[in-house]
Amino acid sequence: MEYSPQIAEWPDEFNDKLPLSEVFLSVQGEGRFAGYPALFLRFKYCNLGCVWCDTRFTWDRNEIEAGELLSPEQIVEQAKQITSKADRQSDNLHVVLTGGEPMLHQARLVVLISHLKDAGYRFFEIETNGMFVPSQEIIDAIDWWNCSPKLSNCGLPIETCLVPEAIRAIAATNKADFKFVVSEDSDFEELEKYYLPHINRGQVMLMPEGYTQKRQLRNSQWVMEECAKRGFRFSPRLHILAFGNERKR
Question: Topology of domain 18-181, per CATH?
Fold first, then answer.
C-alpha cells in the first residue's frame, strides 16, 4: 500500500508567534556536534511526514500534541527557566531548533534567534529536511545546518523530497552537514544519483535507520563499513542508543 502521511492542518494565522511543541535540555544526539550539551526548541508541523519519523507528535493529525503558540519573548523565558534550573550558563550551550520542520517558520525564527542572542545564547543549530530555500537573514543567524534530506526510504518518492535549489543554498553556506538515513544498498545509489550533484561527498554523513537500540546497533556495523568504502562520514544516533524510542528529558 502506498504511504500517505496524515499531516495536521496548518492553522490559519500565526501572526508573530511560533507553534512550540517542547523545550528541553539534553545533549545533541547526531551529527558533527553529537555529545554537545544543548537546549532543544522543538516546533510543530512538517511538510513531509516520514514513515519512520520518531516525532510524529509534532505533525501527525492522529497523534499531534497541543503544544503552545508563543511569542519569541515567551519562548526565551521558557529557555531561561530551564537553563537556570539546571544551573547552566546560556553561552556554553548550543540551541538546537528542531521539529517537525522548523524551516516552515524561518522568518519567525530569525526574530526568535535575535531575542535569544540578547539573552546570552551564542550558538544556534537548525535541523531541517532541506526543502526550503533559506533567506539571507536566517543564513546569517544560524551557526550550523544539520540538514537531513530524505531518500525514498522515508515512504515518499524522491521527487517529492528533493528541492535542488534549497540543497545548493544550504551547502553554499559552508556551515552544513547533510545527514542521510540509510537502510539498504539502494539508498546509496539514490544518494549518489540525486544528491551528490548538489553537495560535496565530504559534506555527507550517514546514519543507520532504526528506532530501537537493537536495530541501531545491528545496522551501525554495515553503515560504518560503507562509510569507509565510499568516503562518507558516520553519524551516531545517541538518543536511540541511550533511550530507544522513549522521550527522555
Answer: TIM Barrel (3.20.20)
Q: DSSP string covering 164-209, please?
A: HHHHHHHHTTT-EEEEEEE-SHHHHHHHHHHTTTTS-GGGEEEEE-
**Which pLDDT value is given to residue 84?**
86
CA 134 to chain centre: 15
Q: Which three cell numbers stand for residue 148?
A: 537531513
What SS3 state is found at 110?
helix
Region of residue 210 (phi > 0: left; psi between -120 and 50: alpha; otherwise: beta):
left
C-alpha cell at 195: 544528491
State residue 249's pLDDT score: 52
Cell of 227: 562509510
Strand pairing class (204-208; 233-234):
parallel
All three cell numbers of 185:
544498498
Dump pLDDT digits (tens) for 142-167.
999 999 999 999 999 999 999 999 99
In this prediction, the residues of the chain whose per-residue pLDDT falls under 70 are 1, 87-89, 91, 245-249
CA distances from 59 to 9, 90, 141, 157, 185 (A): 9, 29, 25, 19, 29
Query: C-alpha distances in angstroms, 190 versus 181, 182, 196, 240?
Result: 12, 10, 9, 25
